[in-house]
């Protein structure tokens, strides 16, 4: 039991080191803390997620639906390739098709339309991400949530069932470190 606990801590610290050693995170720490960290996590996500039709060396497109909570931070961080991959960031208007998007961050400003938005994106092979509380349980794939025990910490909540329905898969390392929910 102790061995298992130590192994889990080592994996967690490994994830933290991967992020902390990232040049993107170093830049992000200069911006607003919460959304700077969320931006760094969001830009690292393509490394740990399989998206149908997205080759490992192809640029990934991250679309932000709603009011952009990241300000210029997301664009600034995306200027440099992340883990060798170029990340393109662009806005997505409500009701517009997600053509060309591999990842869609759904901002809090879209909370009232969340069910309709998830339903509209269900036909596209995109990874849905948000920091809305309960997003993963509502049918989203990746939730960037505040830790209930420590409000300053973030945790990743995954919904593998929603991901599988779109043909999206999560890396085993991400699955071990995240909280997994089934709606």
Mind explaining what this structure looks like?
This protein has helices at residues 2-20, 23-28, 33-44, 73-78, 114-121, 160-165, 172-177; strands at residues 49-50, 60-65, 87-92, 103-106, 127-130, 142-146, 154-158, 169-170, 179-180. Helices cover 34% and strands 20% of the residues. It has a single domain (2-180), classed as Rossmann fold. It is built from 7 helices and 9 strands; from the N terminus they run αααββαββαβββαβαβ. It has 183 residues and is of the alpha/beta class. The radius of gyration is 16 Å and the shape is globular. Strand 6 and strand 7 form a beta hairpin. This is YfiR family protein. It holds the Pfam family DUF4154. Keywords: Signal. InterPro entries: YfiR/HmsC-like.
Q: In a nutshell, what does this entry contain?
A:
The protein has 183 residues and is α/β, with parallel strands linked by helices. It is 34% helix and 20% strand.
Give the number of domains.
1
What's the CATH architecture?
3-Layer(aba) Sandwich
- Gross morphology: globular
- pLDDT averaged over residues: 84
């Amino acid at each position: 039991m102790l061995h298992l606990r130590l192994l889990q801590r080592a994996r967690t610290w490994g994830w933290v080191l991967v992020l902390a050693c990232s040049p993107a995170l170093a830049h992000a720490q200069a911006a607003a803390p919460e959304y700077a960290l969320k931006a760094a996590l969001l830009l690292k996500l393509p490394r740990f997620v399989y998206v149908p039709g997205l080759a490992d060396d192809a640029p990934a497109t991250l679309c932000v639906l709603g009011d952009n909570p990241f300000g210029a931070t997301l664009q600034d961080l995306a200027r440099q390739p992340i883990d060798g991959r170029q990340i393109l960031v662009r806005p997505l208007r409500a009701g517009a098709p997600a053509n060309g998007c591999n990842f869609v961050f759904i901002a809090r400003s879209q909370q009232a339309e969340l069910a309709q938005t998830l339903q509209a994106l269900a036909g596209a092979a995109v990874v849905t991400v948000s920091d809305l509380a309960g997003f993963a349980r509502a049918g989203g794939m990746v939730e960037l949530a505040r830790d209930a025990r420590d409000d300053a910490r973030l945790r990743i909540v995954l919904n593998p069932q929603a991901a599988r329905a779109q043909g999206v898969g999560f890396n085993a390392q991400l699955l071990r470190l995240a909280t997994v929910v089934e709606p």
